[in-house]
């Protein structure tokens, strides 16, 4: 299939359309990014790379990082992880605290913020130097040693993160945070502040797109079955309250971040990363979702 | 792959285990079924059939019928359907009326009861003789002319269906039911009362498992893309509040019913039907879910 | 105190102001009433009557009737009543079904619709000819033999009462309705359709304003303590989600109806009835609430 | 009326009954108090004092302090206060964060924790040395200069107050906290840690029981109408999710605290304080509520 032509066509088509959506402003540092950035990168299982636009420019991966932290926690704890966090779609907006209280402190899944904070707490417990080891793992996944936290973004988020402070304290009140709340949030904000390019995300997620091999990087080991399950969680929960819509129209497991990035996977075929900072009303990249819909429609490939 | 051996093995293994779960008692007629029934049927894309146990015995398909009615509504209305019902997982128990009120009468998806009732309302509007045409469609899908409603089950459900009456009236109060509420419920209960075997369900769902051909039966036409989308909705919403768990552990689109049936699909590979009447605490067949977990684990095949 | 002058003054002041609020349109028959009607009637404990405007014109008392049915149920069942319905303010809009589901079919209090429907069910169980006996009781309370149901209003409400149908079916599904749902609703809609004047309501509620005597009318007996408790429920729950505001600004127990009527009580001092059909955004008479605020402020009398 | 005999009788009767309920353990420092403490103090409007048991022993007044802080905020801001906090009963348990999120950061009333925290934030904004001025006000109300914060209790609460931290951060995320969250909580925990006796509470609330005079203490001025409104809020919201029950069975405005104290008012007649540390399942003093029920029944006096 001529992926490059398809990517070029969709990119050009979308360029002529009005770009709707709004850049996230609740993290002041993110609001500085040019809203017109647009990059796409496709990395196939047989080793080919296709890209267009700002595919080699760094951006804040934000919630996409939750896939990385989940993979570490699953490797460290195995099934015991699911006593601390569920695997069901949340059915509500991504920052809702309601469900948390109703379900006595067990977040619905590891991709809503409270769930990701519980996973962060686990990493703080089990890794000696959490920030350092997390970074080494990402560098091992990508082979790119220059990937780093953006401390300005982390600080900016920390200063305005009252909702996350509410979540972590609520979780702590139910006994589902074991470490100091400030320490957990400090790691969580660093994790989210990772700066990566579409290309680098492609390399990293390529490891999760391969469900036929054992996964083993930097001491993190996952069975084939565990890699498949990470894909299942991405499909069910990767796009907040737009997960059903995304499965319905795109048909790929994936994960979005408020920095405007989306990574999606066709297992054992390819990994595709898109970046465009304007968000739709569900908090996912407006152009990113549209691009991927077009892509799976024109290639007629999806998991279904 | 030697499917028959794998099926036999899992069947035997499960037979030695204690059979947990409870038969649904809220529909008195269903409570009469022997709780020890257990049947499995696999129908591959290349035309082979494998079965064991009570695979040729009729049972009440209940909510599995929602896939059939959805396919008709999607054929008749196209994307306009999504103004009346959503495609997001519900995140709550299958009979919750809360979300309905909160979201002003638009059910989250077509597989929770309120969503299926809205779809039933659409069929009452668009089909001349709804019950007759629905039955003809099922017979066309399966090629089995003896498939019929079980009027005792339909009546039994109608007499005890206060929650569904609550739902349909709440929907009507928001203007999302166009016909008389009693007429809609009458069709809905008939649709759910269909008696079919695992084998017959396999034949019917085989049509939805084929995402490479156009779907056209008895005047109902679906594009490849529409068939894929029905699969996506099954994956996201097919198992009530256990959908995430099912995707996580089984990894196949599917649909369950309180009669104890489950049908699951590996697109373009096979359709598998399981029937065992005892239900787990999420309302899905206890043995059915366990069987399918074992099956996708041992065959190492899933959509991920 | 010169009540008549105070009433006249407030009436005149409000006349000069713009009349906000909207007449209830969900009961078509009620929408026919002139929105400019405005009547006030005060009946003191020592037997004096003061009135102005349309105080002798009949209107649909609607939810005000819930006080009458509650008094019968309390007389018949005593404390056993509180196993079927609570006494806590609802904290949500008056037609919310959420709380009902959350609290397993026990309505928060007898003045939200589901609670009043449970009370109606009790009257259907315990009174032989419910509609006839209920009417006789109202006639005994007022001494006015011409008070009657408005069958057009009852029918109109029945035809459009999908939300109440949802409630009664939800209650039935939890086992908190013992009779046929249609029979219960038929009585409930008749009860709400009662046509009375401000003056007649004053006479009826005068009996509940006397907390120093035993209450005994037409076979319905209440102890002093029970009469006080009806007043307590009126104060806590009489104005839907505006109950706190009403206690805060008016400071009297009372009950409103969507027909635009309000009756309020200063125990052992007076009963005051107001009627003005336009409703505020909480479903209570816009002018009625404003009049009563002025009245307790200028007289400097309230229960506090 | 022979109040002392009535108090003695009820006290003796309750002494013979089993003392149910449990002492609050979530504030470790409070768990040290002897659960068998039991004191009652009645202070009449004409200046008589009646007491029994541990009426002169200090205890942690906890949420009773919310009435004091509300009175300051109302004096300082007047009606502008109600833009920051409502006056409706909450209809849910006292630490629920759900409603807060649903209603965009405006707590339902000043007596649920989030509401009291908003009031605390206002005091931090408007008083120069908040802790000092608050204490001076309480000393002025009671005429007792030795009343003070219990710093051990304040610290104990701070260390375990994750739910309050969740609330204050959620409020801050909606912009309804203007000061630093830690500073607000520090004042809030001090306010709640006040140690007072039943007798001292009687003296302080005596000022709120007088609705016929202007209230003016230590620079805090309230009109008669404002004092009445504080009473209305106590009646509607003073006992968390048991407020309706308390109005129903006791019929007095009042406020409870998890230290086991309750103060109730019959306006212009008396103030009654009860202390018994074991709590019922709604978080109010088990014996305190029972005592007050008996008291208003036997005296046949209440606001209704």
Automatic annotation (TrEMBL), chains A, B, C, D:
Its EC number is 3.5.1.2. Belongs to the glutaminase family. This is Glutaminase. It comes from the Bacteria. Keywords: Acetylation, Hydrolase. It catalyses: L-glutamine + H2O = L-glutamate + NH4(+). One of its GO terms (biological process) is L-glutamine catabolic process. Homotetramer. The keyword Hydrolase applies. It comes from Flammeovirga agarivorans. SUPFAM superfamilies: beta-lactamase/transpeptidase-like. The keyword Repressor does not apply. Pfam families: Glutaminase. Substrate binds at residues 63, 113, 157, 164, 188, 240, 258. GO terms for molecular function: glutaminase activity.
């Amino acid at each position: 299939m001529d992926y490059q032509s398809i990517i070029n066509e969709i990119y050009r088509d979308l360029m002529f359309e009005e770009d709707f959506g709004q850049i996230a402003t609740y993290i002041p540092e993110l609001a500085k990014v040019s809203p017109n950035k647009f990059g796409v990168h496709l990395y196939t299982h047989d080793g080919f790379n296709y890209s267009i636009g700002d595919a080699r420019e760094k951006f804040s991966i934000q919630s996409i990082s939750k896939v990385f932290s989940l993979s570490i926690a699953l490797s460290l704890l195995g099934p015991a992880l699911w006593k601390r966090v569920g695997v069901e779609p949340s059915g509500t907006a991504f920052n809702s605290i309601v469900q948390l209280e109703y379900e006595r402190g067990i977040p619905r899944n590891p991709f809503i913020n409270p769930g990701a904070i519980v996973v962060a707490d686990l990493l703080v417990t089990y890794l000696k130097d959490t920030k350092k080891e997390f970074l080494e793992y990402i560098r091992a996944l990508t082979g790119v040693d220059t990937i780093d936290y953006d401390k300005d973004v982390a600080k900016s988020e920390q200063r305005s993160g009252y909702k996350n402070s509410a979540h972590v304290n609520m979780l702590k009140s139910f006994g589902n945070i074991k470490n100091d709340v400030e320490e957990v949030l400090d790691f969580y904000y660093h994790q989210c502040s990772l700066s990566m390019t579409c290309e680098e995300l492609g390399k990293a997620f390529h490891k999760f797109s391969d469900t036929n091999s054992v996964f083993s990087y930097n001491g993190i080991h996952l069975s084939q079955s565990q890699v498949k399950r990470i894909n299942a969680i991405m499909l069910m929960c990767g796009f907040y309250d737009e997960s059903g819509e995304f499965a319905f129209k795109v048909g790929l497991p994936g994960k979005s971040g408020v920095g405007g990035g989306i990574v999606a996977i066709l297992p054992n075929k390819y990994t595709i990363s898109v970046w465009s900072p304007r968000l739709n009303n569900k908090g996912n990249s407006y152009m990113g979702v549209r691009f991927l819909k077009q892509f799976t429609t024109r290639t007629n490939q999806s998991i279904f």
